[in-house]
Amino acid sequence: MIELIVLDVDGCMTDGRIIYTAEGDEIKAFNVKDGFAIVNWIALGRRAAIITGRSSKIVERRAKELGIKHFYQGVKDKLARLEALCDELGITLEQVAVIGDDLNDYRMLKACGHSFVPNDAMHRVVEIADTVLSRKGGEGAVREMIELLILREGLEEEYLSKWL
User: Residue 113 has what pLDDT?
Assistant: First the structure.
């Protein structure tokens, strides 16, 4: 059973672009459908974490907005951070599903119970992923991952009952 989803940000929750204003402010675009799925995954009693290599106040704001309690930025060794989180939560890596798109996600993707990559991920991580999603990063890949997990975990009826 998957207890925790781990999300990379740039290239998964976003399309990977970083836009700077003339004043030096950073702009990122998040997909609202991804956010809807994340909030509902948490409402089903499951957990979500963000583990990202960059640091951004925008990402911190998005994590708070979505109710993601486990939020780590500026992480150089994502697998080590995830292993520490699993110890803290009392779960195994087999109970974790992760989405990543590039080499800094490789070890984490390889170690988890189920790994997902957007269809525009770097070819080396595509080669090791359990599931290559039909959607690109920032274009609903996270939603697709969560909905596949909801089906796999037998949570569809409970998920839909909140809305139908």
Answer: 94
Q: Where are the beta strands (DSSP E) in 23-83?
A: 26-27, 47-51, 70-72
Residues in the chain: 164
**Structural contact between residues 29 and 2, judged by C-beta atoms closer than 8 angstroms:** no
CA dist 129 → 2, 28, 108, 118 (Å): 16, 26, 11, 10
Q: What is the mean pLDDT of residues 101-120?
A: 98
**Residue ranges making up the domain that contains 81:** 8-100+109-158
Residue 2 counted as domain residue: no
Q: What's the CATH number where 28 sits?
A: 3.40.50.1000
- Average pLDDT over the chain, rounded to an integer: 97
Indicate the SS3 state at residue 42: helix
Alpha-carbon gap, residue 88 to 159, rounded angstroms: 27
**pLDDT at site 162:** 87
Residue 88 structure tokens:
């803290």
Q: For residue 46, which amino acid is it?
A: R
> What tens digit of pLDDT does each residue of 133-161 get?
999 999 999 999 999 999 999 999 999 99
Total domains, the chain: 1
